[in-house]
Amino acid sequence: MEKLHIYDSLSSKLKPFVSIEKGKVGMYVCGPTVYNDVHLGNVRTFLSFDVIFRYLKYLGYKVRYVRNITDVGHLIDDIDEGEDKIAVKAKAENIEPMEVVQRYSIGFHDVMRAFNALPPSIEPTATGHLIEQIEIIKKLLISGWAYESNGSVYFDIFNYNKNNSYGELSGRDINDMLHGSRDLSGQSDKKSPLDFALWKKASSGHIMRWPSPWSNGFPGWHLECSAMSSKYLGDSFDIHGGGMDLKFPHHECEIAQNIGSSGKKGANNWIHTNMLTLNGKRMSKSTENTLLPRELLSGDSEHLTRPYTANTARFFIHQAHYRSILDFSDDALQSADKGYKRLISSRNLLEKRTKNGAKKGSFDVVKWHKSCESAMNNDFNSPQLIANLFEAAKVIQNDSKDSGILGQDGAILLAEKMDLWMHDILGLTNENVGDSNNYKTALKAAMEIVFETRKNAREKKDWTKSDSIREKLLDAGITIKDGADGSDFSIS
C-alpha cells in the first residue's frame, strides 16, 4: 500500500505521515462553541475529520481523537474585549449560562448522530480544565512570555517574537499586523494591541467567573485547546485540526502558548478545512447567511425547494476535497441526491446477482480497491474516492447485462469493498436497507431535530411553518404522526 500523505498547513507542504508512536495517532480537533446551533459550515469541518478518523482507523492505527467543547471564554468578535458569547445568550434568554451550554451541546450531539459521525475518544470542556489552564499561565509568567495587568494576564507577543515567528501558520507579518491594529493608548491593559488574553478579570456584571491567583475572571479562548491537547495527547502529538477560519488568531495563539509553556509547537501536522459557502457567499452566523441542519432536514428554508437527508448532504460535502471551498445550493443538493442514490442503487444490484455465470470475471476488483486506497492516501482525497465508486457503479450496471464482467467472486468482493468505502470510510448509510442500525440511528436523530423545529413553531402558534414542514416531508415520502406522547413518523 502507498504511504499516507497529509498536507500540513504549518509547512504548507504535502508530506508523508509518520506517527510519533508507531501504531498510534493522537488527533485534536477544535469543537463547537456552544452558544448557538451549529450550521452546515461547521458540520462540514466535523464530517471531514470524521472521515479522517475513520480512515486512520482503517489503516490500523489506534486513534485517540480529542474534540473539545468550548463552554467559556469565547468573546464577541473573537477579541479580548466584550462579553462571552455564552453569557450574552444567557442574558438574552434570562437563563443560566450552563443552561445555554447544555441545550446547544445536546443539539450538537444530535446533529452529529443524524449525520452518522463517530463520537470522539474524549470530549473535554473548557470549564472542566480551568486548573490546567491556570498552570499554563503560571509557566508563561515565569518564562517572561506573559504579564499581569490589573488582574488580567496577557501573552507578550513581542517578547515571544524575539526568538520565534508569530504569524508563521497564517502567513502574517507581525509588522503588518501591528500597522493594521488600532491604537490602544490609555484604553487597554495590554502592552501591545497584538497581545492576547490568557486570563481576563471579570467585570462586575460578568456572569461567568472563577477564582485565580490574579483575579476572579475567566480564561482566554485560545488557552483551553493548549491545555486540553497537552493533557490528553502530550506536548507533541500527531494532528491538530479545525476550520480554516481558526488559523488566525486561534491556532496561531495556540502555537505561541505551546512553545512558551513546553518548548514544543504541539502538533506535527496542522490540518484545516476550507469554508462552505451558501449560494456563493460565505456561510456565517454573523452575516445570517446560514443553513442549519434542521432546516436542511425539514426543507424549511428559503434556500431549499424540499427536504434533504443527512446522507445526501454528507455525500455532497465529501464530493469536494476538504481543503477546497464548497458552495451549497439547492441545485447542487439535487445533483448530489441523484448521485448518492445511483451509488446505492448500483450497490444493491449486487444483492440480486444469481449464482449462474462464470466464477471469475474480467474486472480487477483488487486493483480498483487499491486505487481507492491511493486516493485516500493522497491527503484524504474523497472526491477521487467517490469518482472511483462511480466507476464501480458503471461496472455493476454493465455486469447486469454481462455477468462475465464481474463473475461471482468479483461481485462478492466488490460488494464487500463498496460497503467498506461507502459506509465505513465515507460514513454513508444505505437508506434502502431498513434494518441497518446506522441508518435507524441517524434517521431517528434527524427526525428528532425536525420534531423540535415543529414543536417550537407550534408553541409560537406559527401554524403555517408547522404545516409547511409536514407537507414538505410528505412530498419526500415521510409522514408525521402527532400524538399525546409526542410525534412519530413513517416512510412510504
Question: Can you walk through the features of this model?
Answer:
There is one protein chain. This protein is of the alpha/beta class. The two termini are 44 Å apart. The strands form five sheets. A four-stranded parallel sheet has the order 4-3-9-10, sandwiched between helices. It has a four-stranded antiparallel sheet with strand order 5-6-7-8, covered by helices on one side. A three-stranded mixed sheet has the order 12-11-13. The longest helix has 23 residues, at 437-459. The protein has 16 helices and 15 strands. Among the domains are: 20-273, HUPs (Rossmann fold, 3-Layer(aba) Sandwich); 443-491, no CATH class.
Order of strands side by side in the largest beta sheet?
4-3-9-10
Q: Tell me the structural class.
A: alpha/beta
- Count the helices. How many? 16
CATH topology of the domain at 20-273: Rossmann fold
Give the CATH architecture of the domain at 20-273: 3-Layer(aba) Sandwich
Descriptors:
14% strand, alpha/beta, four-stranded parallel β-sheet, four-stranded antiparallel β-sheet, 15 strands, Rossmann fold, 492 residues, 16 helices, single chain
